[in-house]
């Protein structure tokens, strides 16, 4: 993975929150689109990231390019219809359904 010299998305969000600088909607949409494409790429290859959070999204210094990183707990499913059944990742970022044991 290439070095993302702009830090992580958590740091970017904190910068905008504390500096008073406005995060442009267009920039947010670009990042969201890039992350959706990254997840699509992974899922087409049966790879689950399993720890999606702002700290694992890295931004280039140009402030236009976001990349998904930290695949430390990622899992490759052995076949396309296999279900992920292991709960892992960052507990504070779990969905309510996971916390309630519905998934």
From TrEMBL:
EC number: 2.7.11.1
Stretches assigned to the Protein kinase domain: 1-103
Pfam families, sorted: Pkinase
Classification via InterPro entries: Kinase-like_dom_sf, NEK_Ser/Thr_kinase_NIMA, Prot_kinase_dom, Ser/Thr_kinase_AS
Catalytic activity as recorded in UniProt: L-threonyl-[protein] + ATP = O-phospho-L-threonyl-[protein] + ADP + H(+); L-seryl-[protein] + ATP = O-phospho-L-seryl-[protein] + ADP + H(+)
GO MF annotation list: ATP binding; protein serine/threonine kinase activity
UniProt record similarity statement: Belongs to the protein kinase superfamily. NEK Ser/Thr protein kinase family. NIMA subfamily.
Protein name in UniProt: non-specific serine/threonine protein kinase
């Amino acid at each position: 993975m290439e070095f993302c010299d702009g830090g992580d998305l958590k740091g970017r969000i904190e910068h905008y929150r504390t500096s008073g600088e406005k995060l442009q909607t267009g920039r947010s949409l670009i990042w969201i689109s890039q992350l959706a494409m990254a997840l699509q790429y992974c899922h087409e290859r049966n790879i689950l990231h399993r720890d999606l959070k702002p700290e694992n999204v890295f931004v280039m210094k140009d402030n236009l390019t976001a990349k998904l990183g930290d695949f430390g707990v990622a899992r490759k499913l052995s076949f396309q219809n296999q279900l992920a059944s292991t709960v892992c990742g960052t507990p504070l970022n779990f969905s309510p359904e996971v916390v309630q044991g519905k998934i």
